[in-house]
Design goal:
The chain is of the alpha/beta class. It is built from 4 helices and 6 strands; from the N terminus they run αβααβββαββ. The chain has a 5-stranded mixed β-barrel.
Length: 121
């Protein structure tokens, strides 16, 4: 009986909090993939304080679409990687297209910036 009450209590808390994902809040900036990348390169500590875990609208030229991700071109070595777009959002896209999405800024790994929970438009 105690176990059932614990499970029910946990479910109620998760539903009341909107699940386990943190709310990224309102869009804090609208900028190109290049500008977002340059902000990070100029000062990673400031970039993390201003953008990491927050929602931004980013736009740029699609470099490629691969493994369920859209890569916005920054330079021949660097990309901004958009994740969690739906197949319906990605199917009509092609390399070279201009694309805009609103996403949560994630990690920066080996010259690639990862944006999560993306929505096209």
């Amino acid at each position: 009986m105690r176990r059932i009450a614990l499970v029910v209590g946990t479910l109620v808390m998760l539903l009341a909090c909107g699940g386990t994902e943190p709310d990224a809040g309102p869009v804090v900036a609208r900028l190109s993939a290049e500008a977002l990348f340059e902000e990070r390169e100029a000062n990673a500590t400031r970039f993390d304080a201003e953008y990491k875990g927050k929602r931004v609208t980013v736009y740029g030229t699609i470099d490629r679409i691969d493994n369920g991700k859209v890569y916005l071109e920054v330079s021949w070595l660097s990309d901004v990687v958009l994740d969690d777009l739906t197949d319906e959002e990605m199917i009509p896209l092609n390399a070279g297209d201009q694309f805009t999405a609103t996403c949560v800024v994630g990690n920066f790994v080996m010259a690639q910036m990862f944006l999560d929970d993306c929505l096209a438009g």
